[in-house]
Design goal:
By secondary structure, the protein is of the alpha/beta class. It has 17 helices and twelve strands. The strands form two sheets. The protein has a seven-stranded mixed beta sheet with strand order 9-8-7-6-10-11-12, with helices on both faces. The protein binds NADPH dihydro-nicotinamide-adenine-dinucleotide phosphate and (2Z)-2-iminopentanedioic acid (2IT).
Length: 445
């Protein structure tokens, strides 16, 4: 058995039932195969066996009291995956589907994503199976305070810095930060995604979506194309989807879809700036369903459906993992889609990834294309440490430069390993080598 197969066997045996984690590991292992075969030092240092094992997993009880006085109990997680190149860094996800396998897949992806950003950040992820849907502000606050009461002993500005992800935005980061500050008795950058008036960074809310589009622009430039005039399908309607649409509009593209966990809207006339404002109010303030958009703006609503059968030039999955199946990918290709840039983490299943890569479309995997979010979190950490905020233009310029650099690393690395244009290989190998070399330098730890 080869080194890669052996590691995959160990991972399967040690992590039974954690299918998203196994999926993420299998993809990275397949990509780094030639690097491992060409560099005996990685095998001698058992880098693969070490890199698939989180440095620390914290699992805890989160008890809280709901509005009717009932006691509720959720599970909290923080997976501190790898600190070879910096403090653990990565978001928190509050969603009923959360279990250890989801947090481990996200933490594992984060290790390589953070490595690609060029900033000194290790990888981690956390969250809870708490469902924020239908909860009052008070219930969200009580839950966040209980969650942080335990989490606070495991994090810190130089140790582990959480941020948002699905179900965790500015409101939740506020409650979490308030409780952290109260218990730790210090105002430090132990969380990112903070609001502007109390330590946040300009452009952080926009960063994942804008970055995903900057990455798409770079991919299109390699064949002399641009986003102007392109018909674009976007999934999701949360933080990443909203700013993906905003940037696409600014660049002259036409966005025709958005979705949520209940269904998809198809607006052939395009989701203009004014219509996007409606979506932001609907999702961020009123916390309603995307279905309302259809009635208000005379668009199609497709209950229970995803956007991938809508004809488009470019697709931007910005909702969740495995939201593009092999069959969806085939439909996108049949309809002439030439580019997929992933705002979400691992939104394409392995069959979809295989199709995109083998048909040689411009396919930007999440760990490269959505790295703008965590990159600006890294810049928020820098600003907090300096106690100096940077202007909007400066942060946006740095975001663009970072996305250009990630794109360059992917291209050059893929080329170097004889896989020209394969952004999956490029991202996985470039992300891996930096972390693996740091692990070798630091000995067997
Ligand atoms: P939000 O909570 O703001 O929005 C999530 C969106 O995805 C909502 O529209 C939600 O619908 C939909 N969604 C969530 N789960 C499912 C599901 N199981 N099936 C269908 N739709 C679903 O999260 P974000 O926008 O922050 O995150 C979206 C994706 O981007 C995630 O994969 C996340 O990991 C990734 N990401 C986020 C970054 C960030 O900084 N926030 C950075 C990089 C990546 P509904 O409202 O019905 O639940
Ligand atoms: O998946 C991700 O990169 C995020 N949710 C953002 C993490 C962060 O620390 O900003």
């Amino acid at each position: 058995m080869g080194a890669i197969e052996e590691v995959l066997e160990i991972v399967k045996r040690r992590n039974p039932g954690e299918k998203e984690f196994l999926q993420a590991v299998a993809e990275v292992m397949e990509s780094v195969r030639p690097v491992i075969e060409a560099n005996k030092v990685y095998q001698e240092g058992r880098i693969l066996e070490r890199i698939v094992e989180p440095e620390r997993v914290v699992l805890f009880r989160v008890p809280w009291v709901d509005d009717s006085g009932g006691v509720q109990v959720n599970r909290g997680f923080r997976v501190q995956f790898n600190s070879a190149i910096g403090p653990y860094k990565g978001g928190l996800r509050f969603h009923p589907s959360v279990y250890l396998g989801i947090i481990k897949f996200l933490g594992f992806e984060q290790v390589f994503k953070n490595s690609l950003t060029t900033l000194p950040m290790g990888g981690g992820k956390g969250g809870s199976d708490f469902d924020p849907k239908g909860k009052s502000d008070g219930e969200i606050m009580h839950f966040c305070q209980s969650f942080m009461t335990e989490l606070c002993r495991h994090i810190g500005a130089d140790c582990d810095v959480p941020a948002g992800d699905i179900g965790v935005g500015g409101r939740e980061i506020g409650y979490l930060f308030g409780q952290y500050k109260r218990i730790a008795n210090e105002f430090t950058g132990a969380l990112t995604g903070k609001k502007l008036k109390w330590g946040g960074s300009l452009i952080r809310p926009e960063a994942a979506g804008y970055g995903c589009i900057y990455f798409a622009e770079e991919m299109l430039k390699t064949c002399g194309e641009s986003l102007a005039g392109k018909v674009c399908a976007v999934s999701g309607s949360g933080n990443v989807a909203q700013y993906t649409v905003e940037k696409l509009n600014q660049l002259g593209a036409k966005v025709v879809s958005l979705s949520d966990s209940h269904g998809t809207i198809y607006d052939e006339d395009g989701i203009t700036e004014a219509k996007l404002k409606f979506v932001m109010d609907l999702k961020n303030v009123r916390r309603g369903r995307i279905k309302e958009y259809a009635a208000r703006h005379n668009a199609d609503y497709r209950e229970g459906k995803r956007p991938w059968d809508i004809p488009c030039d470019c697709a931007f999955p910005c909702a969740t993992e495995n939201e593009i199946s092999g069959a969806d990918a085939a439909t996108l290709l049949k309809n002439g889609c030439i580019l997929v840039s992933e705002g979400a983490n691992m939104p394409s299943d392995p069959q979809a990834v295989h199709l995109f890569v083998s048909k040689r479309i411009l396919y930007g995997p999440g760990k490269a294309a959505n790295a703008g979010g965590v990159a600006i979190s890294g810049l928020e950490m820098a600003q907090n440490a300096m106690r100096l905020p940077w202007p909007r233009e400066e942060v946006d310029r740095r975001l663009r430069d970072i996305m250009i650099e990630i794109h360059r690393q992917c291209r050059v690395t893929a080329e170097q390993w004889g896989q020209s244009g394969n952004y999956v290989m490029g991202a996985n190998i470039a992300g891996f080598v930096k972390v693996a070399d740091a692990m070798l330098d630091q000995g067997v730890v």
